[in-house]
Amino acid sequence: MRTLLRILAGLVLLGLVTGLVIFFGFTGAGPVPPASRDLEALDEEAEAEMYALGEYVAKAGDCAACHESEDGLSFAGGTPMETPMGTVYGTNITPSETNGIGNYTADDMYRAMVYGIAPGERRLYPAMPYTSYHAVSRADIDALYVYLMAQDPVEKPNRPAEMVFPFNLRPLIAFWNLIYRPDPPEDPGPGLSGGEDLAEDRRGPYLVDVLGHCGECHTPRNLAFAKTDDHLGGTVIEGAVAPDITPQGLARRGWTRENLGQFLSTGLSPQGVMTFRMFPVLSHSTKYLPARDIEAVATYLAEDMPDPASPPSEPAAVDAHPEGHGLYMGLCAGCHGSEGEGQPFGSVAMVGNTTLMLDNPLNLQRVIREGIPARSLSGHLRMQEMPAFEATLEDSELEALTEYLRDRWGVGAM
Amino acid sequence: MSALMTVSMTINGTETEPVEVPEDLMLLEFLQEYLNLTGTRYGCGQGVCRACAVIHDGPRGPRALPACITGVAWANGRAFRTVEGHAERDDEVNVTAITPVQQAFLDHFSFQCSFCTPGFVSAAQALVERLEVDPVPVEDVEDVVLAALNENICRCTGYVRYLEATRDVILATPGLTTGVERAEES
């Protein structure tokens, strides 16, 4: 008995020691490449150049998605991110010394973005997409640093994360990192700072997988909430479907490379309009990408894409779903058209609508229930409000309408 | 050519004769073209300006909705009130008494061209009737009025006179608000 206890105590001790060795020896930040240039000795012209570049890196990296303040005026943080483990709030990344990142060096910013480790060995939750940003070039981080440090500091304290036990124990993230954090590539390439040197075939992946961190929402996660190998395969996150955006998934729903470019730069395409958490992505990020980068993103997403399917349509659904058809004619057709043709600047077409073609009806039902506010998309392009029908439709009616729509123009007609 | 359907609904308390109409006909066209009730206005045609608002008397109480994008396919069998149905009338359908909401809009000079007015009358009347069942604290009245009329667009008078008129009707009508005693004490 005593021997058994000794063995057990020994095992526990061994486990602890191993844990500590791993923690201190293997889970910290890795190597930090030298600064791309001496940031202390920038002349006015060089600083302006880096500022402009940094601003673009911030947009392409969609920092605002999480770090924007509630008033939308600064990077002072506060945007909630709901995860199954609790809620994390975007932090203040203005150069406030007390509340923001005013004391960061450019090396500190590199460690935070690439390794998820803030000054003081504070481990960031992987809600900060360092597993995507891990391949950002040092020059891009330096430019971003110059840009962020030139913002007005905002004295707004960070809102602590509200995680459930044991996920509130930050040191444990070290072990998650050990398993799920990729090392930065040996050669991350020149990044956006490289201009022409960032070749077209690297530009798309860099914008999509690294800076744009599209996979953070579009790639399914495992039980440890780490991204799986089903890259961009689509999943449910924060109560909405982030659709499958693999070339196969896109082609199945009728997307072309041109449509993708149009959708990302204007928020609107024949397949529909940006909704849920993709609308802020348009407003903060994709609408600012110049044509060349939109092209690169669309080309990468559509790489080796099969021929896109033509919009499905099944007229027999009218007779098969009399209740759903009646509800469509009575409540939807006024804007979306009796043949589902939609109208410009008002309502998207049902014919070819990507949401109707998703296997999961979640987004469709949420849009019908909750509506969509009137929105400025990009430039002068606006879409009018979609009313909420929560107070009008009984649950059974919503089901009937959903079934009709999906069988008429969506997944049931494919 | 769209399919036909036979519809009948209750408009201003009277059940309409069943009539065969295209199934994609909107309620607004039905009111204007089939019933000659032209008081409900066609504005944007997209459910945004609310010039076409009518009151739907449904199981969840009266609610203003846009008739221009609500189809007869849904309206069939339901009950609605248009701007023609608010005032009291004698046997020759002459108006004998207008509603407090209508009177307040006149007193406040709430409208100029009046194109939006039927929609505002519907929205304000639906609000007043909702408050009869579910009164709100006095201090919330302005917010509640704004929320109820916010969707209605007016290009002449700048909204304030509509909002003030509606607020005054609500404050002057017993039973629509709570906490009045306390307000009187102070």
Topology, pairings included?
The complex is a heterodimer of chains A (414) and B (186).
Chain A: H1 2-26, H2 44-60, H3 64-67, E1 80-83, E2 86-89, H4 106-115, E3 117-118, E4 122-123, H5 130-133, H6 138-149, E5 162-163, H7 173-180, H8 200-211, H9 215-218, E6 235-237, E7 240-242, H10 247-252, H11 257-266, E8 268-269, E9 272-273, H12 278-284, H13 291-301, H14 317-320, H15 322-336, H16 362-370, E10 375-376, E11 382-383, H17 395-409
Chain B: E1 4-7, E2 10-11, E3 14-15, E4 19-22, H1 27-34, E5 53-58, E6 61-66, H2 72-75, E7 79-81, E8 88-89, E9 95-97, H3 100-107, H4 117-133, E10 136-137, H5 141-149, H6 160-172, E11 177-178, H7 180-185
Parallel strand pairs in B: 2-7, 10-11
Antiparallel strand pairs in B: 1-4, 2-3, 5-6, 5-7, 8-9
Structure keywords:
heterodimer; A: 414 residues; mainly alpha; 3-stranded antiparallel sheet; 42% helix; 7% strand; B: alpha+beta; Ubiquitin-like (UB roll); DNA polymerase, domain 1; 5-stranded mixed sheet; two-stranded antiparallel sheet; 35% helix
Give a brief rundown of this model:
The complex is a heterodimer of chains A (414) and B (186). With 414 residues, chain A is mostly helical.
Describe the protein in words.
Chain A is mostly helical. Chain A is built from 17 helices and eleven strands. In chain A, the strands form five sheets. In chain A, strands 1-2-5 form a three-stranded antiparallel sheet, with no helix packed on it. A two-stranded antiparallel ribbon of chain A has the order 3-4. In chain A, strands 6-7 form a two-stranded antiparallel ribbon. Chain A is globular, with a radius of gyration of 24 Å. The N and C termini of chain A lie far apart (67 Å). With 186 residues, chain B is of the alpha+beta class. Chain B has helices at residues 27-34, 72-75, 100-107, 117-133, 141-149, 160-172, 180-185; strands at residues 4-7, 10-11, 14-15, 19-22, 53-58, 61-66, 79-81, 88-89, 95-97, 136-137, 177-178. Chain B contains seven helices and eleven strands. Chain B is globular. The model of chain B has no long low-confidence stretch (mean pLDDT 94). In chain B, helix 3 (100-107) packs across helix 6 (160-172), helix 4 packs parallel to helix 6 and helix 5 (141-149) packs across helix 6. In chain B, strand 5 (53-58) and strand 6 form a beta hairpin. Chain B has two domains: 4-85, Beta-grasp domain (Ubiquitin-like (UB roll)), CATH 3.10.20; 88-178, [2Fe-2S]-binding domain (DNA polymerase, domain 1, Orthogonal Bundle), CATH 1.10.150. The interface between A and B is medium-sized, with 17 and 18 residues.
